[in-house]
Write a structure and sequence with these properties.
disordered N terminus; five-stranded parallel β-sheet; FAD/NAD(P)-binding domain; 20 strands; alpha/beta; seven-stranded mixed β-sheet; single chain; 3 domains; 11 helices
Length: 417
């Protein structure tokens, strides 16, 4: 049990991954934590729930992390959940082209020297080593530029690898996305070699990997956790926050107490109208299908030429993610289920008969990762001396990812005097 530091108390508002990360980091420092969350469960957009339609526990979406994500690994180690990620022993990314039925696997080597691009059976089919100069170019810094300003955005490598990769990482049509955000991801992953990009998926669920262990960890260290408690207003006096108004009453802050707002940007905009935050967002559509995958199905399969982009195989279901899905998100769920299952069945050689399904939509899944929205991302520190911001939408230098969310929480905890 960690003893709280005398006079140190922090209110973390929001129990998504950014808020949980901040709370865990504060608790490690011995700071007394009050964690408040408007929803009835923690996790935010990284959550699991029992779906009555499928009669099984599913994740709201499929969240992939990589073996070289340092904040992810620090967080899971801190909450005792390092064993809750599953994935292959090497960097292997299988794909299928739905139009031609051609299959291949991208296999970067583990070391930093990318000799894999010299091997035809490791790289994208019908590409040569000169095509991969685009990766090096993207890894440079391009402030204020779109990816389309930096790369031609055409050709086999773009169609079969870069575009599918970038749309999933940025959740934004990559041609319009900020080149610097794409470059930051590439510098932290492919530039470090395959050892940093072994794909990892939460097992058995997002909640059991990222959320429930964190809540147990915090309770064991004396944190006060209140769910179903929405913050309605901040009492700002001069250059500090003096109080918090929740749905269940007001809380006056004592000297030395601080606040971390780890809530969505539109909530921050309501609470702090003068603070610049992202105000354009992109959707994600997920489909969950209750059917056991065929023997030998890879845990993750990239689909080219269809509506579905990635298919994730679990013991009891196949799940699909479609990023930058603004054109799909308002379509009828039955139509979406049939559309996505058509791709899944074709990719895995399954019957066209639709199994039990569930569609999950996140209309404002992430901020649009454009140069204009990148400029609107605020820093963690605010002009109020005891108020900090956390979230994947803050200025982390990364797009809206689990890694970025967890880093933002660490940053907030590190700024507390």
């Amino acid at each position: 049990m960690t003893t709280a530091a005398p006079g140190k108390r922090v209110h973390v508002v929001g129990a998504g991954l950014a808020g949980l990360s901040a709370a865990v980091a504060f608790a490690k420092r011995g700071v007394s934590v009050v964690l408040s969350e408007a929803a009835r469960q923690a996790g935010g957009r990284c959550r699991s729930f029992r779906d009555s339609q499928l009669d099984m526990v599913i994740d709201n979406g499929n969240h992939l992390v990589l073996s070289g994500n340092p904040a992810v690994m620090r967080y899971l180690a801190a909450i005792g959940a390092s064993d809750r990620l599953a994935g292959p022993a090497d960097a292997a990314f299988p794909y299928v082209d739905l139009a031609t039925r051609r299959r291949w696997t991208l296999r970067p080597n583990d070391g930093r020297l990318p000799w894999w691009i010299l091997s035809a059976d490791r790289r994208v089919p019908d590409t040569d080593i000169t095509d991969y100069l685009a990766l090096a170019k993207l890894m440079l810094r391009h402030p204020g530029q779109r990816i389309a300003d930096v790369l031609p955005c055409r050709g086999m490598l773009w169609d079969m690898f870069l575009r599918p990769l970038l749309v999933s990482v940025l959740n934004t049509p990559p041609e319009e996305a900020a080149a610097d955000l794409a470059g930051a991801v590439m510098r932290e992953t492919f530039a470090k070699g395959g050892r940093a990009i072994h794909p990892r998926i939460a097992a058995p669920s997002l909640a059991e990997a990222f959320v429930e262990p964190a809540l147990r960890h915090l309770r064991d260290r004396g944190a006060e956790i209140q769910l179903g408690r929405r913050l309605m207003a901040l009492k700002l006096v001069g250059e500090a926050v003096a109080g918090l108004t929740f749905t269940d009453g007001e809380v006056a802050l004592a000297p030395g107490e601080s606040v971390v707002l780890a809530v969505p940007p539109w909530i921050v905009q309501d609470l702090l109208p003068g603070v610049s935050v992202p105000d354009a967002f992109c959707a994600i559509v997920n489909g969950h299908f209750k059917t056991a995958p065929p023997p030998g199905t890879p845990p993750m399969l990239g689909l080219i030429g269809g509506t579905a982009e990635w298919v994730f195989a679990f013991a009891d279901r196949l799940s699909v993610t479609v990023s930058a899905a603004d054109a799909l998100v308002d379509r009828d769920n039955d139509e979406l289920a049939n559309l996505l299952w058509h791709d899944v069945a074709a990719a895995h050689g399954l019957s066209s008969s639709l199994p039990p399904w569930r569609i999950v939509k996140e209309k404002r899944a992430t901020f649009a990762a454009t140069p204009a929205q990148e400029r609107r991302r605020p820093p963690c520190r605010t002009r109020w001396r005891n108020l900090y911001l956390a979230g994947d939408w803050t200025d982390t230098g990364l797009p809206a990812t689990i890694e970025g969310a967890l880093r933002s929480g660490e940053t907030a905890a590190g700024l507390l005097p």
